[in-house]
Amino acid sequence: MATIICFDPTEWLTTREAAMLTGYDPAHIRWLIRHGRIRGKKFGRDWMVNAQELAEYKSLVDRLGRAKHAPGGVERVKEK
After folding, report:
1. In the chain, which ranges are E strands?
2. Model confidence at 64, in pLDDT bands (50, 70, 90)?
3. Cross-strand pairs, 48
4. How many C-beta atoms surround the C-beta of residue 12 within 10 A?
5. The pLDDT of residue 13
6. Taking a C-beta distance cutoff of 8 angstroms, is the pair 46, 15 a contact?
7. How confident is the model at residue 11 (pLDDT cuts 50, 70, 90)?
8. What are phi and psi of 50, to 5 degrees?
9. pTM for the whole thing?
10. Whole-angstrom distance, CA of residue 14 vs CA of residue 26
């Protein structure tokens, strides 16, 4: 039996749109998805990124500044 997925386009961005909004490269956006930093879903051949999680991640990284490069950087803060 097929599962019906409700897709709200206001919640999701393509990797290209996400890159334009954040200044990251689309390949880096895909890396973030692969490593579980942000949630993404594949629709056909395109990856889509959850807009809210992307904004939260970008805000966290901007707030951490250079500390994001410390051992455990972003992961350590997200676990708290």
Report:
1. 12-14, 40-43, 46-50
2. confident
3. 14, 41
4. 20
5. 93
6. yes
7. confident
8. -70, 120
9. 0.71
10. 9
